[in-house]
From TrEMBL:
Domain FDX-ACB, chain residue ranges per copy: 342-432
Source organism per UniProt: Adiantum capillus-veneris (Maidenhair fern)
Family matches, as PANTHER family: PHENYLALANINE--TRNA LIGASE, MITOCHONDRIAL, PHENYLALANYL-TRNA SYNTHETASE
Documented EC number(s): 6.1.1.20
SUPFAM superfamilies: Anticodon-binding domain of PheRS (SSF54991), Class II aaRS and biotin synthetases (SSF55681)
UniProt xrefs under PROSITE patterns: AA_TRNA_LIGASE_II, FDX_ACB
Protein name (record): phenylalanine--tRNA ligase
Length: 432
């Protein structure tokens, strides 16, 4: 969803009004169902697991060293970064040439290189720790915009965040004099839990500046010229990645572009949103040394595209270090289809409580993820009612499932017991 709509939808969900559009709901559901289509081909190699989740307390990213203490500050009320997110910093999946995200990034690089040799500057190692100014103000996100809330964004302190999108680097790159650039990186959002949403994912930003001479010759105004070029470029990219695929453009809203559109791809019977883009707001160009020019920008979700291209049914798999996952992909090979190596059933546990005004679904997801990590497959509101006294009760169903092994009853009961233990204190709710 759009930056704006995404956050407000979360807020709406938090108020227990399932206002997701039916198409989007269907899309979410369909992908969720897709997550259940694991084949039964659990091979004898199943026993050869390589689960080496070594958690370092110091990571390298964007040319700097980041220690846990720099990012996770439990006693600081202006900080909301959990350990589970700190451990993802520095992994930089998009920089691994034999990882689906790295293979896809390289293929997009090739597309731009073939079409415009030597023209686009590429950045894939910019630090994900950015100022509130870069992430929001520089791209004209209004001060009261929902996406800035602690419910939606990971704050290190009140001035510094984990970037929520690669658009956080637009202004800086413009000021450095770049006119054609691609920025790839890990981005962070407090979000709901399901097969296509994860608190850390990867985006690629594209940006191109045009000078008046370029559109004058066409007889078009600058905005129409840039919009046409943007659409042609991205349709060309979609064709290169997917072959003859059905695409459509949907009008949307972003604070930093006008007009703003999203590209959807028809995949397995559903329209899948893969990127947002538009013609850059003139103020961004004016504020960063490019007055009088026109530009386009796009931000695409690498996981969304990679799930389609490689047949990867669940977004958590990208983080797997299981050899049965990682060994299936080879540098430079986009056509490979992922062969599911296991089909382990999910286990569902419900939790019901009386909510308070401050309760949000994102906060619940964070508690669940803090306890169950990637074993949490989905958290879903299944029932809500308000009694005569005006108290509202919610029932959430948590799906626990491992991509890599069977979970024991004891293990799941233990996780659920810890969720029940932490939820009342952390979320100010009363268990029923
Ligand atoms: C943005 O983040 C804008 N910065 C994109 C942009 C850039 C627009 C430049 C205009 C100009 P949005 O929130 O819609 O927009 O996210 C962009 C893409 O990231 C989505 O289309 C989707 O493919 C992907 N995405 C968004 N949220 C998630 C998530 N939780 N998990 C995985 N992928 C996601
Ligand atoms: Mg969107």
């Amino acid at each position: 969803m759009v930056l704006l709509l995404r956050a407000s939808t979360c807020t709406l969900i938090a108020r227990h009004v399932p206002l997701l559009s039916s198409a989007r709901l269907q899309h979410r559901r369909s992908l969720f169902f897709a997550a259940k289509t694991f084949s039964r081909s659990a091979s004898s190699a199943a026993s050869k697991r390589a689960r080496s989740h070594v958690h370092a307390s110091i990571v390298q990213a964007g040319g700097i060293t980041i220690s846990r203490e720099d990012v996770v500050k439990e006693d600081d009320p202006t900080n909301n970064v959990p350990d589970s997110v700190f451990w993802k910093l520095g992994l930089q999946l998009h920089r691994r040439d034999d990882h689906p995200l790295g293979i896809l990034k390289n293929e997009i690089y090739k597309f731009f290189e073939d079409k415009f040799p030597g023209k686009y500057q590429k950045f894939d190692d910019l630090s994900p720790i950015v100022s509130v100014t870069s992430n929001f103000d520089d791209v004209l996100v209004p001060p009261d915009h929902v996406s800035r809330r602690y419910n939606d964004t990971y704050y290190i302190n009140s001035d510094t965040v984990l970037r929520t999108h690669t658009s956080a680097h637009q202004a800086q790159k413009l000021r450095e004099g770049c006119t054609h650039f691609l920025v790839t990186g890990d981005v962070y959002r407090r979000d709901s839990i399901d097969a296509t949403h994860y608190p850390v994912f990867h985006q690629m930003e594209g940006f191109r500046v045009f000078s008046p001479a370029e559109w004058d010759a066409s007889g078009m105004d600058g905005t129409s010229f840039a919009l046409q070029d943007l659409k042609e470029t991205l349709e060309g990219l979609a064709k290169r990645l997917f072959g003859d695929v059905e695409t459509r453009w949907v009008d949307t809203y972003f604070p930093f572009t006008n007009p703003s559109i999203e590209l959807e791809i028809f995949f397995q019977g559903n329209w899948l949103e893969v990127l947002g883009c538009g013609v850059t707001e003139p103020a961004i160009l004016e504020n960063n040394g490019r007055a009088g020019t026109v530009a386009w920008a796009f931000g695409l979700g690498l996981e969304r595209l990679a799930m389609v291209l490689f047949d990867i049914p669940d977004i958590r798999l990208f983080w797997s270090s299981d050899l049965r996952f990682t060994s299936q992909f080879k540098a430079g090979q986009l056509g490979i289809k992922f062969k599911p190596f296991s089909k382990f059933p999910p286990c569902y546990k419900d939790i019901s409580f009386w909510i308070s005004d401050s309760f949000t679904e994102n906060n619940l997801c964070e508690v669940v993820r803090g306890i169950a990590g990637d074993l949490a497959e989905e958290v879903k509101l299944i029932d809500s009612f308000t009694n005569k006294k005006g108290m509202t009760s919610n029932c959430f169903r948590i799906a626990y499932r491992s991509m890599e092994r069977s979970l024991t009853d004891d293990e799941i009961n233990n996780l659920q017991a810890r969720v029940r233990e932490e939820v009342p204190g952390k979320l100010q709710v009363t268990l029923r």
